[in-house]
Amino acid sequence: MSGRSVKEFWLGIRKFPDAREASVLPLFALMVVFLIVVGGAAVDVSRTVNAREKLSYAIDAAALSVASRLSTTVMSDNEIKEALADSFRANLSDAEFLDKAIDNLTFSVDSDEGIISVTSSATLDNYFVDIGGALSSFAGPETFAFSTGSQVTYSRFDVELALVLDVTGSMSDEIGDLKEAADSVVNILIPEGTADGKVKMSIIPYSVGVNLGDYAETATDDLSSRCATERAGDEKYTDASYSTEPVGDGSGTYRSQHCSDSEILPLTDDRKALLEAIDDLKTEGYTAGQTGIGWGWYTLSPNWSDLWPSSATPASYDDEDVLKFALIMTDGDFNTYYDLDTLTKKQCKKLKDKGQFKGSCLNGTNDYWREKSSSGLNGESSKRGIELCSKMKANDIEVFAVFFGSNNSSDGAKVMQSCASTGNYYQATSASQLISAFSNIAKKIQQIYVSQ
């Protein structure tokens, strides 16, 4: 560069501060900072809106999850808070505000109305609005706060459900399908992990009678068998108290005969016990369906409370916080019943020789419970079964009925149709349909008690 050029360059530098056009540069610098702040603010606000949406989704999911559990089990405040926090961790695992959201988590439960309300709040650091804290005095805060809440209804009701299951000889080939179907009811209404449940179920396997197991000693004075059949006296076919006087030959309030080894299980919320009882189902004998229906009712009836352990005591009929259901299933016609006959010793022996009586023939004239055949919709067994169903429904027990067979016009199907409450009859012609019917019934029961 020549000496003249250097001189002109330095003269130009000295004049720059006095040049009017030079004021554009600081204005331009301020404008750049302003645009960065405005653009950055949009980013920060957008991040906050997205974070609030994520928190809102997480709260909805957590509230629904806990509401579902509250519908089936009793939970303490600590259990509810931990369940909500676990749900947050599952749905906000990648959120930078997760810890703050859990710390600020609050909830309330209105047990009278069946409502759980959940709220939470958090903050998000601003990346642009406050650049290192330097702009907080005029550009904005260091963080944006956001909050949201959710309110979900849950069932305030308890549920009592009797499963009345056909384990007669004709079910031998399908007993595995019946077990799977019954398991599905337990899995839906008492899911794994449920404790202190609000849903209790009883299992009543029936064939020619119902095996009362350890409860036979209290219910009847005939301990030669644990298989109970018909009621004695004027109160038979009703849910009157079981503590009536023995009749006739001293065989007891019930005439005991041989039936399936599958034992009755009174109301319980013990999922393991229910699944084990279902797994133990075995088939044998004829179809005295009315006896199964009767004993299903007895597990739900407050009039039978003193037969069962305290944990299995049925609620009173007028308890507005308890809903009662029965699920009755058969694969064929009801064909066996028991009645009280007055016989001489000679008449008794004659019946015994024909295989129509299994007891002891006594001197003189005596009353004996006899097993009798029954057929058709107008047969005694079918009529008694339908009558029992009608009386259950009169006591606000909602009845579901399943006929497992291809002939929907058969007498067995008609009995189930008569037994079922309106809209609650199901026909299953295959194993898959049987399982589906039981599952759909469980879901319908769940919908009923959650929505009321």
Automatic annotation (TrEMBL):
It comes from the Bacteria. The keyword Transmembrane applies. Residues 236-259 are annotated as: Disordered. The keyword Transmembrane applies. Keywords: Membrane, Transmembrane, Transmembrane helix. InterPro entries: Tad_N (IPR028087), VWF_A (IPR002035), vWFA_dom_sf (IPR036465). The chain crosses the membrane at residues 24-43. Residues 160-441 form the VWFA domain. This is Pilus assembly protein TadG. It comes from Roseibium aggregatum. The lineage of its organism: Bacteria, Pseudomonadati, Pseudomonadota, Alphaproteobacteria, Hyphomicrobiales.
